């Protein structure tokens, strides 16, 4: 009998851990007029992240300024990964899988030419340790 009472008490006690918290006195914060935080989200967040968008971000990128979601090199890689549309890399808690456009072999060959040109002619200030670089 004592064992059954102890077991019942233990079950009731453990069930309380999963019960919802009382609503009285609790307040949830809600952000109305939710605008995207420019310190967390880039210009192309939730938009098509294709070569045209990357080239626009690359043109606006200033390697001498601190790296932010609005100032990053979209062609930079970190541990073999490319950044999302806000400059975050896979593994970072703010990374969002970008919306990618359709691709085929011919367009990949054209993009390769653009990337080869960017690698051959880096922006002034694009050096390891620059404030606008991840590495």
Structural class: mainly alpha
Model regions low in confidence, pLDDT < 50 over at least 5 residues: 24-34
Content of β-strand: under 5%
Query: Span between N and C termini?
Result: 67 Å
Largest sheet: none
Shape label: extended
The chain-level mean pLDDT equals: 83
Rg, alpha carbons: 24 Å
Order of helices and strands: HHH
Task: Classify the helix fraction into a percent range.
Answer: 25-40%
> Can you count the beta strands?
0
The total number of structural domains is 1
Number of helices: 3
Keywords: Signal
Region (Disordered): 66-94
Signal peptide: 1-17
Q: If you had to describe this structure to a student in words, what would you say it looks like?
A:
Residues 1-17 form the signal peptide. This protein has helices at residues 2-16, 51-60, 105-120. With 135 residues, it is mainly α. The longest helix has 16 residues, at 105-120. It is extended and about 85 Å long.
Topology:
Layout: H1 2-16, H2 51-60, H3 105-120
Signal peptide: 1-17
Keywords: Signal
Region (Disordered): 66-94
How would you briefly describe this protein structure?
Residues 1-17 form the signal peptide. This protein has 135 residues and is mostly helical.
Supply database-style keywords:
3 helices; mainly alpha; signal; 135 residues
């Amino acid at each position: 009998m004592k064992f059954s009472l102890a077991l019942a008490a233990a079950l009731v006690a453990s069930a309380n851990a999963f019960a919802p918290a009382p609503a009285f006195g609790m307040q949830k914060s809600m952000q109305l007029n939710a605008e995207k935080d420019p310190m967390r989200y880039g210009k192309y967040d939730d938009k098509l992240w294709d070569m045209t968008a990357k080239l626009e971000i690359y043109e606006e990128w200033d390697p001498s300024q601190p790296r932010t979601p609005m100032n990053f090199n979209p062609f930079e890689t970190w541990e073999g990964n490319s950044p999302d549309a806000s400059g975050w890399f896979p593994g970072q808690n703010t990374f969002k899988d970008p919306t990618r456009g359709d691709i085929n072999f011919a367009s990949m060959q054209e993009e390769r030419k653009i990337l080869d040109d960017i690698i051959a002619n880096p922006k002034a200030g694009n050096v390891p340790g620059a404030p606008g670089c991840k590495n």
